[in-house]
Amino acid sequence: MPRKTIKIARVVELANKMFESTPDKAKEHREAVFIFVSHILHETKTYNGFNYNAWLKGGFNAWMASGQPENPDEKHQFFGDMSRITMYHK
Question: Which pTM does this prediction carry?
């Protein structure tokens, strides 16, 4: 009999790979996957946040070097493409 379940960790792993590797023109698809997977994580009480990939890959250091601007318009430049994220689960 075929398996009818999938581990939450595997869903998050697949989503994170898609967030990282899809073409730039797929922004709306990434946003839809984020909403879908977030819903699954909230329903299973395993949601543990997310972070922007550009922030993780140097955006934070650039923000620190620029004097840590707190104005949202200034800070957003360090996040990069806000549909390229890494999701976390418990």
Answer: 0.84
